[in-house]
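Readers of this paper often ask what the protein records in our data store actually look like. An entry from our holdings is shown next, in its original layout:
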Amino acid sequence: MTEYPTEEELKTIREWDMVGIAALDMLRFLDYIKDLWWMPDWGFHLKGKRVLRLELHTGGWSGNEDIIEALQSNFMFWAMYWQQSRRGGHYKFRMELTSG
């Protein structure tokens, strides 16, 4: 995708319910983000099965920065899964999936 995420799409990220999120719903959430991410082949890396490790690299693109801000505004997501941020727009997350 090369278009900027809309305010509605960012709101969806901010308001996605993370309380007791099941594995399938987490994968849907991550797919949603990937679909909005500019240059996902370069800046969106997801590994793992039961424990997911997500690396996001914004590439300095303001649309990706907007997505990061929306993720930060989703308090439960950021509090539960954020692992590391590095200068230059690099972020790491760790998600242990539950069945359901």
The beta strands are 44-47, 51-57, 82-86, 90-96. The two ends are 31 Å apart (CA to CA). The helical segments are 7-15, 23-36, 40-43, 62-73, 75-81.
